[in-house]
Write the structure tokens for this entry.
Amino acid sequence: MTRTNTFEQSIGATIEGQYTLTRSVERVTQMGDRFKVLNLADCTGGVRVYAWEHSGLLERVPATTPTPIQARLYVRRFHGETIANLQAVRELDAHEVDNGAALLAWEACSVNARPALGKLADFVDQLEPKLLRQFLNRVLTDPRIASSITTCKGSFKHHHHEPGGLLAHSVEVMEIAGDMAGARLNPLEKAMTQVAALLHDLGKVRAVGSGNIRPTHYLLVSHESQTIRMLDPHLEWLRDRSPQIAAGLDYTLEFLAKHPAERGRALFLAGDLVCAADRMSAALDNHKGLDSLLAKTLPKQQPKAPPSSTRARRNTPKTNATNHQFDIVARHETHAAHRTRHQPNNNIQEGPFPWI
């Protein structure tokens, strides 16, 4: 489902929803009135919001950014720009977030990852059970993760190596794993498989990043172990509420963290499904389809040389023996004249300076 810009389609109306506060700056007018300029964003776009002192909302605006908030806005156009006035605001706790993916800022997301961001928001909307959705929302609103997941590369050279490649790859693995699970797993197991597939490379926000220089610890700690470390606080929250779901995710992520030669066959099918989906996504990005492989391996056909013209051969002058003899005599006479012309004259008397 294509998501339209929340703010552009609400001009002249009052809207209320959940957004991410990405920036907050306090200023003073020439008359001495205090106000704040806020930047709010979601997965469809962003808007500049003004909070005035007389509204009594300045102290309610969270001091830290990025922060998920619940806000009521009046959206309008001003000098060709879409802006909004703040009418109500409060900070959200993690368990109050409806859709963590919908709070990821569209403008901060790499262009390559924007289609995947929309798919992820749709997936979270439909994710059941609610406890698993709350777990995923906690992960996606974690500042350590939210600030990097939409710009991080999938790898440096192997696959999805452009900025935003991690999100594009993760969502693709999630979709492939869900398709392969089909009716083989019950709805809960399928949902757990897709969440594990989505988060299987999360540690790359530390081990790979979005720049051209690898982090210093890249060769010391694998991205799989970083994934477990980053998710551990959220898995601990889940263990207290649903040991079954936490156990399934724990096992799958630990299975994926093993070296491929040591994995063997997974006890829980989700491990094998995510591994297969991961390889398939990487292969698709590396263009390992039949057409591209054949184009690289088949020898290129060399263009055939045009046949020689019979008419050209007919117009070529023939050399007979008589003409050949005349050529020899002419060359001999030319050489003789050349030697005579350059023969030194012995009648010239040398002066006091022979080299002149």
About this structure: The first strand starts at residue 14 and ends at 28. The chain has 13 helices and five strands. The chain has two domains: 13-92, 111-290. The radius of gyration is 37 Å.
